[in-house]
């Protein structure tokens, strides 16, 4: 069971890497727009993160930090909202506001930091 949990963690990290990597490509070499790959990465990271939040396959004596999971979930929902708002603006022909675009990257990095440090 622990092996399955590690596989889900690996998938979760792939989702984060996809979201942050596609954002970084746009931030440092692209047009600073929201891409479909960002949404795919967010979805992968979110689904795998929810699977990791379930109390299965934990080592003996380990407990789940529900405050950390809740914080990361709120940040994930905010990132999803920013991606949705940015995508809607792009479809109307408007540009994505810089605060919205940079917010996606900063919040994604904060979410990774919470996972690693907390």
TrEMBL record:
Keywords: Membrane, Transmembrane, Transmembrane helix
Protein name according to UniProt: Fe-S protein
Protein origin, superkingdom: Bacteria
Organism for this UniProt entry: Microbacterium panaciterrae
Record-annotated membrane-spanning stretches: 6-25, 37-57, 69-87, 99-117
């Amino acid at each position: 069971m622990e092996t399955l949990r590690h596989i889900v963690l690996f998938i979760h990290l792939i989702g984060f890497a996809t979201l942050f990597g596609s954002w970084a490509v746009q931030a440092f070499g692209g047009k600073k727009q929201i891409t479909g790959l960002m949404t795919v990465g967010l979805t992968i990271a979110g689904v795998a993160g929810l699977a990791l939040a379930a109390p299965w396959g934990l080592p003996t004596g380990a407990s789940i930090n529900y405050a950390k999971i809740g914080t990361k979930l709120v940040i994930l929902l905010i990132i999803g909202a920013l991606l949705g708002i940015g995508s809607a603006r792009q479809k109307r022909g408007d540009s994505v506001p810089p605060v919205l675009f940079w917010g996606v990257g900063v919040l994604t990095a904060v979410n990774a930091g919470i996972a690693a440090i907390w």
